[in-house]
Design goal:
The protein has one domain. The chain is built from three helices and two strands; from the N terminus they run E-H-E-H-H. It has a two-stranded parallel ribbon. Helix 2 runs antiparallel to helix 3. The chain is globular.
């Protein structure tokens, strides 16, 4: 049986445009930063982001998916392919 590492309760601090989402969470906790941190530094396979219904966060996710389809998302600290990031976004948003 495959083991998965999960964090099922993560709050987003701010959207990418700086709008507060969860005031008590760090302003560095944007959707994209959480995704990168989970995938590339923490080794988390499944993350539950509880603030994804916020309109600003929905906009962030939409923009990331559009970027994934039309250009490079590869601004992560490791040499990871754009395809890996696109796969991550699709899995995290349920479109995969």
């Amino acid at each position: 049986m495959k083991k998965y590492f999960m964090d099922l309760h993560v709050h987003i601090g701010r959207s990418s445009n700086g709008a507060p989402v969860k005031i008590t969470a760090s302003r560095d906790l944007t959707f994209a930063n959480i995704a990168r941190e989970c995938k590339y530094r923490k080794g988390i396979d499944i993350v539950g982001i509880v603030d994804c219904a916020s309109p600003n966060v929905i906009d962030d996710i939409s923009q990331l998916i559009k970027s994934a389809k039309g250009g490079s998302l590869n601004n992560n600290p490791r040499n990871t392919s754009d395809e890996d990031l696109i796969e991550l976004l699709y899995k995290m948003t349920g479109l995969y």
